[in-house]
Amino acid sequence: MANFGPIDTSVLYGQANHRSEDVLGDPDTTLTVRRGDISFFRVLQLVPRHIRVLQVLQNMGFLGILQCGHIEIDTHLITALVERWRPETHTFHFSVGEATITLQDISIIWALPIEGNLITGVDIKWTTQQWQNYCHQWLGFRPNEDAFKRSRIKLSALLDWLLNNTCDDESPFDAVLQEARVCVMCIIGGILCPDATGNTVSLLYLRHMEIIDEERPSNWGTAVLAYLYRELCMASQRGKTNIGGAMQLLQIWAWSRIITLAPIPSNNAADLMPTVIDVENILPIPICCTPLSWDNVHWVLSIISSQLYASSFNSLISVIIRSNLRAFTSAPALQQRNHRHEANDSSSTSANANGSTC
């Protein structure tokens, strides 16, 4: 029988409780991905946000996430990656070595701030009325009592407000800031840090948006990475059936970095997903997070299974030796590819790293 654990357990000491122990015993170990962004992007399509709101989102560092848009999550890919994740080292263990997603990746893929004030906090035990008053002050509306779950608010309450309210040229600046905060709360709860239910978001995040500093935005990138690491560590344990965190980020990282794994990149501008937020194309797309598309992505999502991904990871070293390739795309090469997509340049250049993601 194959041994999926480490030979030396002095470092990887948690194998007994790792989900890789169940790979042979349970053929259906595909994780369920928690997310709540589908309704949010539908609202953006129905009611595009005003350019003043988008400008605030750009200053806060969240515009790149919206520009990347909604993508389908390949749960089989996520499951295969989690089976390779080791909580002891916070890295994926492949046959060619270790790799991990870093702050640099977050900056390149989503252009999230990775410097600035850290996102920290302590849970606050307020009454529902106190939370209603707090939302009225900083979000611009007073949600119903049934919209709260202790210090959390339902995403549906935020989406309903966005669907029926939008700023215009005459709106006061405070109203613009409030609408931007509502959008960010939807982004956090639906894309960056989905919770166990996938339909609520903690109001504690709002405390870091009371004062919006254009010169020094908060360090959301570090918070997102820490949350993602936590979710990967929890999902890597035996018996876990679901995972949250920034799964879109993880999937884009895998497709962009693992060169033997990704679908075929498309250089055709017509194939790119539509930009639904800046209808007049006033704001520039952040240079690092140009939305990408892949020609055979639907085939991959429907055909590939967790077992095939696992087999692909196992054969990485033989494929690399046979094809004279490197295992991972470097950060500069990833940036160059994004720039080519932005310019719609069909010429192809490549740069390869020495098996490292840093």
From TrEMBL:
GO terms for biological process: meristem maintenance. Residues 336-358 are annotated as: Disordered. It holds the Pfam family PMD. Residues 61-264 form the Aminotransferase-like plant mobile domain. InterPro entries: AminoTfrase-like_pln_mobile (IPR019557), MAIN-like (IPR044824). It comes from the Eukaryota. Residues 345-358 have a biased composition (Low complexity). PANTHER family: PROTEIN MAIN-LIKE 2, PROTEIN MAINTENANCE OF MERISTEMS-LIKE. This is Serine/threonine-protein phosphatase 7 long form.
